[in-house]
Amino acid sequence: MRRIRALFAAGAAAALIVGAPAPASASPREPVTKVWSSQVAVPFSLAVDGSRVLVADGGPGIIGQLQSNGSIKPLLTGIPGLAGLATRGAWTAYGSSIEDDSEPPIISASGLNIRSPKGTTVYADVHAYETKHNPDGALTYGITDPTSCAAGFTAPGRIDSHVYGVASWRGDWLVADAGANAIFRVTDRGAIRTLAVLPPVPVTLTAESVGALGLGDCAIGDTFYAEAVPTGVAVGRGGDIYVSTLPGFPGESASLGAVWRINPSNGKATMVASGLSGATGLAVSGSKIYVAQLFGPGIALVDHGKVSTFAPLAGSLSVATAPNGTVWASTMDLSGQKPGTIVSISNKRVTVRGHFR
């Protein structure tokens, strides 16, 4: 699903502006949102290890560590198409992709980089795996109703890979691939297998979307089955796997984002919550699920299937949780005129440890 990369094109060119951490006013009993850094461009992913906060900044292609003064200390640099970051002890895994200059851009390489405690890196070629297996190739996208005037406007899942979300799970790594519409399990040695394929998302066609698709007005009101693009993956209690999705065209602008629970034994996806606007990542803490909404009112809280606004952060891009319950989030400016931010949301005192492991 190539459209997701276009959503961030403007933010990738944003200039970096140095800013000091500044707390927002809030009641002592309510969670306080504190801006720790505005020295990031497109902070696609956060990884929290105790009081250490790591960020994958897709603008300059840097994985860095947040310092207490708001600066970002680079750990790895020059990573093309950086998106997705996870840690497991002294291990680190992150996604990278290479795309051309066409419009829309075509990704020619995408994979997971697995860095060991000794500093050696294994590259798991997810794009090659997608090319060989194409897990969603058996699915049908488009208008499947035979009575529709646009009957037959369908296509199978195509070969496309974009490693976007990463998580550690049971000694391996999980990859949410926004091109393949699938969740992959990757070992430290780079072996890949398909864990789940997300089902198509029904979208009711509007006059605008019908025009964009080049269909006749008679198709207005028909159901179009769009790609369920996975953007984030997180692990909950007992090893449960949760995935956030942002539907492909023509469902991108509608509030059709969702959270799914994946059964790892059979790959079945069960919807936990829906109605999210541009879900670009999620984190799990106990029974609570936090979702970053790029186009919505900010960080959403999903608690037993109910969705509410946890923190109003425009342009929310990523979210992570610390063991003490602190929620960390990143934002980007969709206009491309301002830098992104890294913030904490907590009703406790928050500290940042800047030393390196």
What's a concise summary of this model?
This is ScyD/ScyE family protein. Helices cover 6% and strands 48% of the residues.
| CATH topology group | Neuraminidase
What class would the helix/strand composition place it in? mainly beta
Overall helicity? under 10%
How many β-strands, per DSSP? Answer: 29
Task: Compile the SSE list and pairings.
Elements: H1 3-6, H2 9-12, E1 22-23, E2 32-40, E3 43-49, E4 52-57, E5 62-66, E6 72-76, E7 83-88, E8 91-99, E9 107-115, E10 121-124, H3 126-133, E11 140-142, E12 154-156, E13 163-169, E14 172-177, E15 182-186, E16 192-197, E17 201-204, H4 207-213, E18 223-226, E19 228-235, E20 241-247, E21 257-262, E22 269-276, E23 279-285, E24 288-293, E25 299-303, E26 306-311, E27 316-321, E28 327-331, E29 340-346
How would you describe this structure to a colleague?
- The chain has 357 residues and is mainly beta.
- It has one domain (3-346): TolB, C-terminal domain (Neuraminidase), CATH 2.120.10.
- Helix content is 6%, strand content 48%.
- A hairpin with a 2-residue loop joins strand 7 (83-88) and strand 8.
- It is globular, with a radius of gyration of 20 Å.
- Residues 6-27 have low confidence and may be disordered.
- InterPro entries: 6-blade_b-propeller_TolB-like (IPR011042), ScyD/ScyE-like (IPR048031).
